[in-house]
């Protein structure tokens, strides 16, 4: 696997054996034998190879994860929104990928503006989304994407029927928008742990 990673990273950069060999101070023949498995890799060779490929020894030596690569998300429901979490908490660094389905039960409205730290990105898979950002109103059609700071008061919902989006939250966005497990606490709205923007 280490040999495959070295060769794969070299080819991804468009480098010949000669080009990588020059960068890590090895002969092209030595590097070729390393990649093809005809020579054992010594630590004093691995260090300059990793440095030349702009990676680390840890990444080159990373064990193969035999965990099932297929994710089978369970739908989570709240008023007008169904969410499927498409990423594993243990493998995604600080972000959550989710598919969300909006129905007219969850309309976009300036009266429902919320704010929280972070940024959000989404692309519309089907239907049309209405996005409010502060005083602006935008329609985001299927195939289009939107990215914005969530410190801008915002709300969004489907237009003219159901719409589905694929979205990426950072950690603050996940806390704000993902359904909270278990029954809602007294006085909760069921819309996650979002903070309403001050109203005029």
Question: How does this model look, in words?
Answer:
- This protein has helices at residues 2-12, 17-24, 28-36, 43-52, 57-61, 171-177, and strands at residues 76-78, 81-85, 95-102, 114-115, 119-126, 128-133, 136-141, 145-149, 154-158, 163-170, 195-196.
- 19% of the residues are buried.
- It folds into two domains: 2-61, lambda repressor-like DNA-binding domains (434 Repressor (Amino-terminal Domain), Orthogonal Bundle); 76-180 and 190-196, Jelly Rolls (Sandwich), CATH 2.60.120.
- It has a six-stranded antiparallel β-sheet. The protein has a three-stranded antiparallel β-sheet with strand order 7-6-9, with no helix packed on it.
- The chain is built from six helices and eleven strands.
- The model is unreliable at 181-200 (pLDDT under 50).
- By secondary structure, the chain is of the alpha+beta class.
The main sheet orders its strands as: 1-2-3-10-5-8
Q: Give the terminus-to-terminus CA distance.
A: 60 Å
- Main CATH class of the largest domain: Mainly Beta
Report the β-strand fraction as a percent range.
Answer: 25-35%
**Morphology:** elongated
SS content category: alpha+beta
Average residue-wise pLDDT? 80
The named CATH superfamily of the largest domain: Jelly Rolls
Radius of gyration: 24 Å
Report the strand count.
Answer: 11
Helix content: 25-40%
Largest sheet: 6 strands, antiparallel
What's the tally of helices? 6
